[in-house]
Structures are given as structure tokens and as C-alpha cells.
Amino acid sequence: MAKYANLTERILANSVPSSESYYDGTPCWVWIAKRTADNYPLMTMRYKRGPRKGKVYNARVHRVVVKEIKGRRLTPRMVVMHLCNNSLCVNPAHLIGGTQKQNVRQCVKDGRHFTPFRQPCD
Questions:
Q1: 45 part of a folded domain
Q2: Does 15 reside within a domain?
Q3: What is the DSSP string of 45-76?
Q4: What mean pLDDT do residues 18-39 have?
Q5: Can you give the residue range of the structural domain that contains 74?
Q6: Does residue 122 surpass a pLDDT of 60?
Q7: How confident is the model at residue 30 (pLDDT cuts 50, 70, 90)?
């Protein structure tokens, strides 16, 4: 018997609504379980089919949310953009797939871009 009825229930059980971080009027769902070294949500899953069926692997939760819950296709080269600028957020309303170029443009537009070796213009 599975611990959770479905993937959405599992994600909800391992996240809490934030009281401080919002995007577009909805709170971020902050991941409270396992994380990567660079502070992104991580979950252990099993392959469902193919030669590795049943084997365990780690998946970044925001990618799982976009693929499984939102039903969007993500190629390996695509990234998941956090519209709320919170790397621990797994709220499907705050996540969209895109290219790295789009992600950097969003970062610059939101004022979060930092280039350490560049001198600021006066």
C-alpha cells in the first residue's frame, strides 16, 4: 500500500503554505523535506517503466510539479522558472517551464541578477 494516494497529496504533505512569501495573491508552498546542496526541493521516486522499472532516483520537485501536476512537457534542456523567486516553492501556480535564457531575463527584470566580476556603471 502506498503512503500517499497520488503525487499531489505527497507534495502537499511535504510542504507548508508560507505566511511571508506570496506571488499573485497566493502563498508559496515551502518544501520542508529533502533538499539539494543548492537548496532546491528534492524527492525520491521510482521509475515506472522501461529497463530501470522499480529503480530509485532523485528528482527535483519543481520539475515533477510542472510535468506531473501541470501536465507540461519538459525537455532535459528546459528549466523550471519560479515566478515567486523562491527556490523552495512548489506551488504549481508559481512554476512555469522555460529556457535558461528566459530564466535569466526574468532574473534581471526582477533585479536579482548579480555579476561578481563586473564593475558597476557610474
A1: yes
A2: yes
A3: EE--SSTTTT-EEEEEHHHHIIIIIS-----T
A4: 93
A5: 7-109
A6: no
A7: very high
Q: What is the mean pLDDT of residues 95-108?
A: 92
User: What is the 3-class SS of 70-97, one letter each residue?
Assistant: CCCCCCCCCEEEECCCCCCECCHHHEEE
Give domain status of residue 116, yes or no. no
Domains in the chain, number? 1
Which CATH number does the domain housing residue 24 bear?
3.90.75.20
Q: Say how far apart CA 61 and CA 95 lie, in whole Å.
A: 11
Inter-CA distances, 60 with 1, 12, 41, 114, Å: 24, 15, 6, 24
Calculate Rg over the CA atoms of the chain: 16
pLDDT band at 120 (very low <50, low <70, confident <90, very high): low
Of 72, 64, 56, which Cα lies nearest the Cα of 90?
64
